[in-house]
Amino acid sequence: MSVSQFFILSSRGDTIINRDFRFDVPKESPELFFRQLKQSRKSVAPIFCIEDVHYAYIKQHGLYFVSTTRANCSPTFLLEILKRIATVFKDLLGLINEEAVRLNFVLIYEVLDEMFDYGYCQNVSTDDLKNFVWNEPIRVKDPTLESNDLAPKGSNELVAAGSSGISRFLPTIRPTTRNVLGSQEPIDLAQRKKKNELYVDVIETLTVLLNAQGNPVNSYIVGRVQVISYLQGTPKVEIGLNEDLVVNTGGLPGGNQRQYGRVTMDDVSFHECVKQEVFSRDKQLFFMPPTGEFNVLTYRVTSNFQTPFYVQPSIDQTGQYKGELVLKIRLDLPDNYEALNVEVSCPVPKVTQGAACEMNIQGISYRYEDYKVSWIISSFKGGSEIFLRSRLTFTVADITAIKKDFGPVNLMFEISDYCCSGLEVLHLRVEERDKDYDPMRWVR
């Protein structure tokens, strides 16, 4: 299976990188792709066809990674290749954004030439490719790092909705090493800096279906243990997890029967470097990590966990062409927990003419733009509750028919030392080859 073209577009449609491997598709493919993306009234599928040319794309950090082909390729193959290309670029550049790609275009073209031969994928492993790349990356500072505070902080994202057509709950715990400057640095290809560091993050996405009263009907967690390795050599690494961890899956010994523990995983999958028999016996991840970023463990949890936030929205008509959106939000955690930088947003119908909010509460700000109302709460203590209100003006007199166009409500927040599933990293050990071998280790 071959790829005809690979290109990277900015969010404005500018072509930043464009490599044509087979010269069998039109040169204006980037323009055709972006036009299709913007003209479609609905969300565009990750793979579509225009004039017998198949387009596959992913979007990361505001950039579109796109491949084209005329061959009858597997969709999963095309998307997996794009994800691995993005991972390699992140490993080599330290982070992915438009500035980093523009400044390192020579390095990126060199890597693409090593990855593909006449459109056929040869290698997408950072460990292998770094031996054939000679250009040094140009470092770019991450604009999201506004402080030098290295204290780990969890980052979460939550989507919720209520009886007015908003009915999903999606929290995401992002990597806490995002605030650690070392994890944003590129791999040292020449090994002159003698970088010797290891980062471990637990990332989870929680999905909850709520009924009209705001009570959960169905819920599950999809999580992963992500490792970013800059270790010298190939030492053995051991990550210890909860001792009462239970895996109910037929893929592991003893997983055919239903069991219960503090953390009960229904499905698990491992990176190829993990020794699964050690995990089955000791609940430890034992592996020799490759260089770069990878998921050492991916899991799914369907029971025995608590959602951190309770969200109940309501939309009421207050007059002709007028309505009010009310969001009741409560943090269902003990008062020793505190959610920071809570950003609450809710899309509103396209028939909305304006929105206003009179709220003189210290620590809460409000804005309305692009048919979305947003509040930013600097601090949210565990056990506390708040009501957010926004008065809306519409072009239609009766809002009953447009209630389903509200939402879903989105929450982004940070909670230190909290994980929805209860999964814990008890220890992180790196094999000591000699007394001077002491790598830096960061664990969330």
Write the layout of secondary structure elements.
Layout: E1 5-9, E2 15-20, H1 29-39, E3 47-50, E4 53-60, E5 63-69, H2 75-93, H3 98-103, H4 105-115, E6 116-117, E7 120-121, H5 126-129, E8 155-160, E9 168-169, E10 172-174, E11 197-210, E12 216-229, E13 237-240, E14 245-247, E15 263-265, E16 267-270, H6 276-282, E17 284-287, E18 292-301, E19 309-319, E20 322-331, E21 338-347, E22 352-356, E23 364-369, E24 372-381, E25 385-394, E26 409-415, E27 427-430, E28 440-443
Parallel strand pairs: 11-28, 14-15
Antiparallel strand pairs: 1-2, 1-5, 3-4, 4-5, 6-7, 8-10, 8-26, 9-11, 10-11, 11-12, 12-18, 13-17, 13-27, 16-18, 19-20, 20-25, 21-24, 21-26, 22-25, 23-24
Q: What's the total number of strands?
A: 28
Count of helices? 6
Q: How would you sum up the global shape?
A: globular
Give the distance, in angstroms, between the N- and C-terminal Cα atoms.
40 Å
- Structural class comes to mainly beta
Uncertain residue segments: 146-182, 251-258
Q: Calculate the mean pLDDT score and round it.
A: 80
* Main sheet properties: 12 strands, mixed
Beta-strand percent range = 35-45%
**Helix proportion:** 10-25%
Radius of gyration: 24 Å
